[in-house]
Design a protein that fits this description.
This protein has 3 domains: about 160 residues, no CATH class; about 160 residues, no CATH class; about 25 residues, no CATH class. Helix 2 crosses helix 8. By secondary structure, the protein is of the alpha+beta class. Strands 1, 3, 4, 5, 6, 7, 8, 9, 11 and 12 form a 10-stranded mixed β-sheet that branches. A two-stranded antiparallel ribbon has the order 2-10.
């Protein structure tokens, strides 16, 4: 049976090879789609790992700095730092925007970090080149995915920054590379209004007929200063002291500070269960569609090859070959076609699609094993139509005209 299947494949090797290549491209896309989903999950976990936080303190009744807008007063960290079980705290801001360098701009997440030292929450945990930020203004550490180099001059809003360090795999949940800058600069970038907006606000406040300036001296200046201030951050990152339970510390902060606090597991659920849930459903739908298309291609090709050798099958029946042997011949051809396609698809996904795809593609061995089993099962099911057609062949056709 194996010899018959092999000989038949060799007689029609051109069809098998070209069909296997086409099927391999589909399988390669399928494996890449699974890798894209894995990459999105890994990006979310990398964002949480790189923050160095055990707790995220955010604006009350919000989902935190990665999923929703959050504003917390930048002096909130002082009260949190004095609470039992808190080892280290740090303010942080996040803003996804275009960072310009020369004539090009790069979509990045600009992260503002407090002054400190390596290990401070929010800081990049390691560098591949250069040094960490040591000045309070106009220095930046960038992920190498941005394409920036040491010494490059970046423009973020109206300020310019010099890249002093490079890091790796510091990305947002959406896969955008992170650019770290000093917190004060990031607050100005995110919260401070431009000069024209401040001037217009002053004119509006002055022109307010309900505002009696002589009766409340100095209040106008105070209101203007408050409106143009940038004393906010998106979140406070907390590291829990050794020996303390993160959930207990979180409960204490919720009770006394009247803010929303998320633990690592809760924040991971937000990132994976909410932010990428829709993308996961879309990818799952594409995987189903691609599987159906692959099965249809295999079924059509095997069925066509079977119809092309009706006389040969009739001869086999005439000499007493059992139906089980004929069915095995067709099924082996179908599986061989699937194996060729899987090998081509795996090579395509690993060497071509994953390196050049704009988002991070994580190809895990387990997914490849599952994909291989799925391909074999699909090929077996796809061969059923051809087997039914072969078993209906009348042996008399072997001697017919």
């Amino acid at each position: 049976m194996i010899s018959l299947a092999g000989r038949d494949i060799m007689n029609a090797w051109g069809k098998f090879v070209f069909t296997g290549l086409g099927l391999g491209l589909l399988i390669g896309v399928t494996l890449s789609m699974a890798g894209i989903y894995r990459g999105m999950v890994d990006d979310g976990k990398a964002l949480l790992d790189n923050s160095g936080a055990d707790l995220w303190v955010v604006q009350k009744d919000t989902l935190g700095p990665y999923a929703e807008a959050s504003s917390v007063y930048d002096d909130t960290w002082r009260g949190i730092h004095a609470m039992p079980g808190v080892a280290r705290v740090a303010n942080v801001t996040y803003l996804t925007m275009q960072v310009r360098q020369g004539d090009r701009d790069v979509r990045s997440m600009v992260t503002g970090v407090m002054a400190g030292e390596p290990g401070t929450p929010g800081w990049p945990p390691y560098l591949v080149a250069g040094r960490q930020i040591t000045r309070g203004h106009y220095e930046a550490v960038a992920d190498i995915a941005t394409g920036f180099n040491l010494g490059d001059r970046l423009q973020i809003r109206r300020n310019h920054y010099t890249v002093v360090g490079l890091t790796r795999r510091m990305v947002s949940s959406g896969g955008d590379p992170i650019v770290f800058i000093p917190l004060k600069d990031a607050q100005e970038t995110q919260f401070l209004k431009d000069n024209d907006a401040i001037l217009q606000q002053r004119r509006r406040t002055t022109a307010n007929p309900n505002f009696n300036r002589p009766q409340i001296p100095g209040l106008l200046e105070a209101v203007i200063a408050l409106q143009s201030s940038n004393a906010y951050v998106n979140a406070v990152l907390v590291q829990v002291a050794t020996g303390h339970d993160a959930e207990e510390v979180a409960q204490s902060i919720r009770r006394w500070k009247r803010l929303t606090v998320y633990t690592r597991s809760q924040m991971e659920e937000i990132l994976i269960g909410k932010l990428i849930a829709t993308s996961a459903k879309q990818i799952a739908m594409f995987l189903v569609i691609l599987s159906i298309v692959s099965a249809a291609i295999v079924a059509f090709i095997i069925y066509t090859l079977t119809l092309g050798k009706i006389r040969e099958i009739a001869v086999l029946k005439l000499i007493g070959t059992r139906n089980r042997t004929i069915a095995g011949l067709i099924m082996q051809q179908s599986i061989a076609l699937g194996i060729i396609g899987f090998v081509v698809g795996k090579i395509t996904a690993t060497l071509l699609m994953a390196p050049i795809f704009p988002k991070y593609v994580l190809l895990e061995p387990l997914d490849s094993v599952i994909g291989f089993v799925a391909v074999v099962v699909i090929c077996i099911l796809a061969s059923i139509f051809a087997i039914r057609a072969a078993l209906k062949v009348d042996p008399a056709e072997a001697i017919g005209s």
